[in-house]
Structures are given as structure tokens and as C-alpha cells.
Design brief:
The complex is a heterodimer. Chain A is mainly alpha-helical. Chain A has one domain: MetI-like (MetI-like fold), CATH 1.10.3720.10. Helix content of chain A is 80%, strand content 0%. Chain A contains nine helices and no strands. The radius of gyration of chain A is 21 Å and the shape is elongated. In chain B, the strands form two sheets. In chain B, strands 6-7-8-3-9-10 form a six-stranded mixed β-sheet, with helices on both faces. In chain B, strands 2-1-4-5 form a four-stranded antiparallel β-sheet, covered by helices on one side. In chain B, β7, α6 and β8 form a beta-alpha-beta unit. In chain B, α3 packs across α4 and α5 runs parallel beside α6. Classes of the chains: A mainly alpha, B alpha/beta.
Chain lengths: 222, 256
């Protein structure tokens, strides 16, 4: 009974439900915006890398290495507390969005690039030999195959990155974790944290299931 | 009678990879409607020569003419247009695994030749019919046998209405029982008057179907002539050695 009282207090649940539902919206919005930006930018950078411009590729590699090496929390704190000193006030939401998008861009660029380098030279030759330009061969032949190869690692990375939206709690973004942990302080009950866990499951379990579907749909024998 | 048109002409072609000279001076002409067979030991530069003909490899020097146009000087941006005139079939098929057979044959028609979709589809089905695979239009490449994949690759090249078809060891990656179906398609093509330059080890097919056989060794064209001349009455020692080695291999294969 003590257990249920601590973690599943119905009165506390009812009190904080509206706040938490709102917070779920914030987390979901952040996650979706991050995924779209990160994957599109990562794909664009990987394709840009195919052009083989030395300086550009050097910059992409440095960017990807830094973004993958730094803990995202460090970047979030630098941006949130450093930028106002430069006269740039960025909201907490925007800071988390920018940082997580950059991190996902770096990872997805590496995943797409890895996929592109695994495309056999014969695929490029077949495309070019039928009169397709390099860009057309990339767009219609190489990239679609690279993207399919990249889906399993990409899905993992997307889930890992979107869960990092919880870092927004450090800089006061009203997402699930920050709302529930302040609710926990006010109510003195651990129940809001249970609600947070459930809220994350509600968002991410369907995402995990959807990812299995995507992986199966785009699996093809090579 | 009009003089037969020269569809492909190679003149003084040289190609080096670093310090290694693969082609040392190749001269070759293919007339309209001719099937020219290129034989020779591995490493003699046969495939490299073929790949120079649509500039998948850049020649080191020399000239190549396709339908009278010198393709060795045209700027890179005009390469795509030039390649439409030269169909190429690879040893490894290289179908696009993420697209259906029909889409494989339609892609370059739409994107490179700028054909309208219905026209491209009709043409693709016609070409698939020609190689006997119309019923596989909706299959994915991985569902086909090697021989079927190669025939789709031939249809993909033919759909662009090339003037010349290049075949780079089209049957070398196939199981023996599948070779015949691909050779049959090539024979049909020859009967339709397609100009073809074929690098292959199918000596029997060369005897039956080739108009001319070229023997390459060490980066040179050593000997050329009709199949009867090349197989029946080889002149150079190198060709004699090569033919006896090949026939030994055949005998060995039959004994297995």
C-alpha cells in the first residue's frame, strides 16, 4: 500500500495531469522538429560530401567529429548561458532544438555517408553509363540505397537523441521531465515522476514499434 | 550500294594506370550492324578498351569516334548526352536493387532522355518483351536469376536506343545453364541489325555469331579476322597459345 501511495497517488495524478499533458506536447514537438531537421541536414551534408570538395569535406568531418564527441548537455549550457552575453537571447526550447538537431545532423551524416561508401562502384557506373548525371545517379540510385542501409542505425540514433530532450529540464524548458520534477517538489510525492515515465513510454513505445515497421518495409535483399 | 557506316572507331588508343600501360595502341573499327568479338587473356586490356568507349575510363591518348563524333575531346558536361548513344552491359549486371525491373528500365529514359512516363513505360515493356521478361516487369531484381538480371540489364541499355552496344563479359558471372538465354538475346539483337562490340570468353558463340574476331594481348590488337580465320587458321604464336589454352580449359570443364 505504501508503494502505491508513493508512486501511484491518484489525487496527485489528477492535480498534475493537465500540466503533464501539456509537457508531453512540448517534448513531442521538440522531438519531431529535431528529427526532421537532423535527418534532412545530415542527408544534405552526406550528399554534399559526394561532390568531393576537399575543404568542404574537411569542414563536414570536423563538424561531425566535434558534435559526436561533445556531451550535448555541455553545448546546451554553453548556448543557454553564453549567448545572452553576446546579446543573443535564445529561448530554452530553441537552445535544445538547435543542439539536438546539430547532434543528430552529425550522426545521421555519418550514417548516410557510411551507406554511400558501401554502394558498389558498379551502381554508379550503371547509372552514368545510361547517361544519368552524377547528381541524378546520387539522387535516384546511390542515396536511396544508402538510406535503406542506414535505417537500423538511424532509428537507434533518432531514439537516443530525442530522449535527450529531457536535458531541457536543466534550462527550464517545460518538457516532461522538468514539469514532473517540479511537480514532485511541490507535492512531495514521487507520483509525478511515475507519470513522467509513463508519458515517455506513451511517446516512445509507438515510435519503437513504428521503427520496426520501417526497418521491415525498407529491407531488401542485395 | 552505300558504304556501311562506321559506328565505332578507335584510333591509337592508349591507357595507363599510373606506371602501368594497359593499352599500348589500339586501332579498331566497327561497322553498322556488325558484331565484333574481342578475345584475349585476362589482363590484356579488353575491358579497359571497352570502358574507354563511353569514357567510364579516360583514355590517356588516342581518339574514339562514335557515329563519326570524336568523343575523346568532348567536355565532361556533354558526356551524359554522348553516353546515351552507347549502351553498356556489365559482367555484374548492376541492376538497381531498390527498384522494380520496370523502373530499372524506365529510369534513364525519363531522367536522361527526358521521355514522358507513359512513353518510357511502353518502351520498357517492349524491351522487356524482346528479352523475354515482360512477365517479370513488377519483380524486384533480387527475385531474378543471374541470366534474367543480365537480360534486364540489356533491356535497360536498349531502351535508350543506342547506336552501339558494348558488352563487357556479359556471361562470365553466370551459372553455365543460364548463359544460353543471354547469348540468345544477343543473337536476336544481331539479327535485328544492332552494332555490337563484345568482350567475352564464349568462344563457341564467337564462332557462330561474330562477324569479326579481335585478339588482344599485352595491350595490342595482335590479330583480327573472321571467326574462321582466327579459330581455324591462327597466324601469331600468341593466338595459337591462347587458343590451345582455352580449348584445354573447355576440355577440362567437360571432363568434370
Amino acid at each position: 500500500m505504501r508503494f502505491i501511495e508513493t508512486f501511484f497517488n491518484t489525487k496527485v495524478m489528477a492535480d498534475y495531469m493537465p500540466d503533464l499533458i501539456h509537457a508531453m506536447g512540448v517534448t513531442l514537438g521538440l522531438a519531431v522538429a529535431t528529427i526532421i531537421t537532423g535527418i534532412l541536414c545530415g542527408a544534405a551534408l552526406a550528399c554534399l560530401r559526394v561532390a568531393g570538395l576537399k575543404l568542404v569535406n574537411f569542414c563536414i568531418i570536423v563538424f561531425a567529429d566535434i558534435m559526436r564527441a561533445l556531451p550535448p548537455l555541455v553545448l546546451i549550457l554553453i548556448l543557454f548561458f553564453g549567448m545572452p552575453s553576446l546579446g543573443l537571447n535564445i529561448s530554452g526550447w530553441m537552445v535544445v532544438y538547435i543542439v539536438l538537431s546539430l547532434v543528430l545532423t552529425a550522426f545521421s551524416e555519418e550514417i548516410f555517408w557510411g551507406g554511400l561508401t558501401a554502394i558498389p562502384a558498379g551502381q554508379w557506373e550503371a547509372g552514368r553509363a545510361t547517361g544519368l548525371s552524377k547528381a541524378q545517379t546520387l539522387f535516384y540510385i546511390a542515396f536511396p540505397q544508402a538510406a535503406r542501409r542506414g535505417i537500423p542505425p538511424l532509428v537507434n540514433r533518432v531514439l537516443a537523441t530525442t530522449k535527450l530532450t529531457a536535458l531541457g529540464s536543466v534550462i527550464g524548458v517545460k518538457e516532461i521531465l522538468s514539469v514532473s520534477s517540479s511537480a514532485q517538489s511541490f507535492s512531495g510525492s514521487a507520483t509525478p515522476l511515475t507519470m513522467a515515465a509513463i508519458a515517455y513510454l506513451i511517446i516512445f513505445i509507438p515510435a519503437v514499434i513504428a521503427s520496426h515497421k520501417i526497418e521491415r518495409r525498407y529491407h531488401f535483399a542485395t | 550500294m552505300t558504304q556501311p557506316r562506321t559506328m565505332l572507331e578507335i584510333s591509337g588508343l592508349e591507357k595507363s594506370f599510373g606506371d602501368i600501360e594497359v593499352l599500348k595502341s589500339i586501332d579498331l573499327k566497327v561497322q553498322e550492324g556488325e558484331l565484333v568479338f574481342v578475345i584475349g587473356p585476362s589482363g590484356s586490356g579488353k575491358s579497359t578498351m571497352l570502358r574507354c568507349c563511353n569514357r567510364l575510363e579516360e583514355p590517356t591518348s588516342g581518339a574514339i569516334f562514335i557515329e563519326g563524333e570524336r568523343i575523346t575531346d568532348i567536355p565532361r558536361r556533354d558526356l551524359d548526352r554522348m553516353r546515351l548513344k552507347v549502351g553498356m552491359v556489365f559482367q555484374g549486371f548492376h541492376l538497381y536493387p531498390h527498384m522494380s525491373v520496370l523502373k530499372n528500365v524506365m529510369l534513364a529514359q525519363i531522367k536522361a532522355l527526358k521521355r514522358a512516363k507513359p512513353e518510357a513505360e511502353a518502351r520498357a515493356l517492349e524491351m522487356l518483351d524482346q528479352v523475354g521478361l515482360k512477365h517479370k516487369a513488377d519483380a524486384m531484381p533480387a527475385e531474378l536469376s543471374g541470366g534474367q538480371q543480365q537480360r534486364v540489364a540489356i533491356a535497360r541499355a536498349l531502351a535508350l536506343d543506342p547506336g552501339v552496344m558494348l558488352f563487357d563479359e556479359p556471361t562470365s558471372a553466370l551459372d553455365p545453364e543460364l548463359v544460353g538465354s543471354v547469348l540468345k538475346v544477343m543473337k536476336d539483337l544481331r539479327d535485328k541489325g544492332m552494332t555490337m562490340l563484345v568482350v567475352s570468353h564464349e568462344m563457341q558463340f564467337a564462332r557462330e555469331a561474330a562477324d569479326r574476331v579481335i585478339f588482344m594481348d599485352g595491350g595490342y590488337v595482335v590479330e583480327q579476322g573472321t571467326p574462321e580465320e582466327i579459330f581455324g587458321n591462327p597466324k601469331s604464336d600468341r593466338l595459337k597459345t591462347f587458343l590451345s589454352r582455352v580449348s584445354h580449359e573447355d576440355a577440362g570443364a567437360e571432363a568434370d
